[in-house]
UniProtKB/TrEMBL annotation:
Residues 315-414 form the Enhanced intracellular survival protein domain. SUPFAM superfamilies: Acyl-CoA N-acyltransferases (Nat) (SSF55729), SCP-like (SSF55718). Belongs to the acetyltransferase Eis family. InterPro entries: Acetyltransf_17, Acetyltransferase_Eis, Acyl_CoA_acyltransferase, Eis_dom, NAcTrfase_Eis, SCP2_sterol-bd_dom_sf. Residues 194-300 form the Eis-like acetyltransferase domain. Pfam families: Acetyltransf_17, Acetyltransf_9, SCP2_2. Residues 1-22 are annotated as: Disordered. This is GNAT family N-acetyltransferase. The active site is at residues 137, 419. Keywords: Acyltransferase, Transferase. Acetyl-CoA binds at residues 96-98, 104-109. Homohexamer; trimer of dimers. It comes from Actinomycetospora chlora.
Length: 419
């Protein structure tokens, strides 16, 4: 199928074939995407493995006449994202790459505009992405909605306040990893607005490291005293002990559904004889780890840096999908040249279990653009801060404060899954 967008023909591909033999178009698309991202040279095996992770997803490509390899790529799929009090369907967008010889001619714009238009037609309320660069996506209506911090733990200085260990640890082998981890991640993600669900294929990439990281990975699960699994951690060796006498471990994923599982997974990471440092590049901005230790200086943080970018495609559906801690009725005017979020919208939260949102002729209390609305949606940024920068116009007195109270999330938005 071809669709003209900005003068370019955007072709849509449905990945097919099996893990052993992806179809030719998908294989060519994967090689073009890898080149745009300066990735490792694809091998037949790595192409087949990647193709298997794309089953059921949408690929887009732009092709020069007579060329079988695309000059631009985009991949997207239907995801679920946690929001305060529930979840919302999201168009997850990734792999936007343009051939080095074809940049700055509108190709990113062509593939992304086409993808967002299809998601909007399908009724998907929001689009979400994580980005390689910070200045690309605001022009397309995306705003930063979650942040992350990198942490570094000196495990030899880490003394836990609570005695332990408690519960039971067990090694999760690659064959059984997805079955053990998926239900835990699904429970854990509901505690954090902005957390995305995982595709079935993503577990293979997580436990194997995918095409970018061939070093061994280890997965450990934790169960409580009743035997109920409550969390897991996946880590690898970032620096071997043989060079410095003390290895550095990198956490690739840590999902805890209870405070006890969180504490015991960190205790496990601190118990490995040959390691002196544990790093985690995608920790939450309010990571509780220092509060577990007698000396909080054992943990150092960098950041925050931006993680998840959101773009509302259907404002009433997105606003009605989340819950609000106070009852109010507030009118937002949204400027959006692309049209998806444009309008004046009344948000009525007087019914706490069924907030209503829809178009209105009433005077607006606040006004902003679509990207700012994307940043506000999960409650990760205070509207009063945005009002101080001119990103939000406060049109009735005190409206930014009312909006802050309305949008306040039950916990800090966090998405630990870069995609
Ligand atoms: C969700 C993700 O997949 S994030 C991954 C992004 N991809 C990469 O980092 C891979 C390497 N880079 C690339 O492949 C390309 O340079 C891309 C995808 C970043 C940009 O593709 P291009 O086709 O050159 O972008 P395009 O010409 O459509 O530009 C669209 C707009 O973005 C702007 N833009 C493009 N690249 C950049 C940049 N690196 N920094 C700031 N602005 C940029 C353009 O100026 C243009 O702005 P305007 O329309 O407001 O005038």
């Amino acid at each position: 199928m071809t669709v003209p967008a900005g003068g370019w023909q955007v072709h849509r591909l449905v990945p097919s074939g099996t893990e052993g033999a992806p179809d030719a178009d998908t294989a060519t698309w994967i090689r073009a995407m890898a080149a745009a991202f300066l990735g490792p040279r694809p091998t037949p095996e790595s192409v087949a493995t990647q193709a298997a992770t794309m089953a059921g997803q949408r690929l887009r490509g732009v092709y020069e006449p007579g060329d079988t390899a695309p000059v631009a790529t985009l991949r997207s799929w239907d995801a679920r994202m946690s929001v305060p009090g529930g979840e919302v369907a999201a168009d997850a967008v990734t792999s936007i790459g343009v051939r080095a010889t074809h940049r700055r001619r509108g190709l990113l714009r062509a593939v992304l505009v086409d993808d967002l238009a299809e998601a909007a037609r399908a009724g998907t309320p929001v689009a979400a992405l994580t980005s390689t660069q910070g200045s690309l996506y605001e022009r397309f209506g995306f705003g930063v909605a979650t942040w992350t911090r990198a942490l570094r733990l000196d495990t030899r200085a880490a003394v836990f306040r609570d005695p332990g260990p408690t519960g039971r640890l067990r090694t999760l082998d690659p064959a059984g990893f997805a079955a053990a981890a998926a239900p835990l991640q699904d429970r854990a993600r509901r505690r954090h607005p902005g957390a995305m669900d995982r595709s079935a294929a993503s577990w293979t990439t997580l436990i194997s490291g995918g095409v970018y990281d061939s070093s061994p990975r280890y997965a450990v699960g934790w169960s409580d005293a009743t035997g109920r699994p409550a969390g897991y951690v996946v880590y690898g060796v970032a620096e071997g002990w043989w060079s410095t006498g003390s290895a550095t471990l990198a956490v690739h994923d840590l999902q805890a559904t209870t405070p006890e599982s969180y504490r015991e997974l960190w205790r496990h990471l601190c118990s490995l004889d040959l390691a002196g440092t544990v790093t985690w590049s995608e920790a939450s901005v309010d990571e509780p780890l220092p509060w577990l230790l007698t000396d909080p200086r054992a943990v150092r943080f960098d950041g925050p840096r931006e993680m998840l970018w959101l773009r509302l495609l259907d404002v009433p559906a997105a606003l009605a999908a989340r819950r609000y801690p106070v009852a109010d009725r507030l009118v937002l005017r949204v400027h959006d040249p692309a049209g998806h979020a444009a309008g004046t919208w009344a948000l009525d939260t007087t019914d706490p279990v069924a907030p209503a949102a829809g178009p209105t002729d009433a005077e607006a209390d606040v006004a902003c653009d679509a990207a700012t609305l994307g940043s506000l949606y999960l409650g990760g940024v205070d509207p009063r801060v945005l009002a101080r920068t001119g990103r939000l116009d406060e049109l009735t007195a005190g409206a930014a404060g009312r909006l802050a109270r309305l949008l306040a999330p039950p916990s800090v938005p966090w998405n630990g899954t870069r995609f």
